[in-house]
Amino acid sequence: MSSVSAISAFRCSRCGREYEALVYRMIDAEAEPSLKERVKDGSLFVRECPSCGCKELILSPVIYRDSHLLLCLSDRPIAVEGLEGVQGRLVSDVGSLIEKVKVFDAGLDDVPLEICKYVTRQELGKRVDLKFLRLEGADHDIIFTYPEGGQMQLLSVGFNVYEDCCAIVGRNPSLTAGLQGLVKIDREWVEQFIA
Ligand SMILES: [Zn+2]
Fold first, then answer.
1. pTM over 0.85
2. 32 and 92 assigned to the same domain
3. Quick one: which of 43, 132, 157, 179 has the most CB atoms within 10 Å?
4. Residue 146 Cα to ligand 1 middle (Å)
5. Distance 57 CA to ligand 1 centre (A)
6. pLDDT digit string, tens, across residues 181-191
7. 62 CA distance to ligand 1 middle (Å)
């Protein structure tokens, strides 16, 4: 597999200028590691108007492929072949796609991490949208971000919490038994088990 992109036409929502931008349909991060960095910093999903500089999100469906990971950004389930030996994930927005890439790139698994986010939300006492940002320091503290008061807040959680969540997954095979093909691992997924 290799990356697939196409030139698409857009209209700037601020000044109305029509312009073209490169849109990826398939991102092969194994063949083109530089694309992975552009996914992680989000720049691959941003188009910029050449007249006024207005930046807007590219919302097209895209498939992201890495060695053992296949992510599909789409608002509806689509058939994807070649899922043997890879973890297939369906995501419905760009932010979730970027998060998944960061999670797996950090050597973490999104199943225990979603449980970890659930536990952290309970402790915070807020129904905020936590996103994994990075591991930090020698103890691999887990850094989450969440929006509050118009700003991005950072939150550090001990790696032992993640390890506890891995143990929960290990003790409950029913959690992962149905995970085949492209699956959606998100807040709704975790809350169907723990609510
Ligand atoms: Zn413009």
1. yes
2. yes
3. 132
4. 29
5. 13
6. 889 999 999 99
7. 25
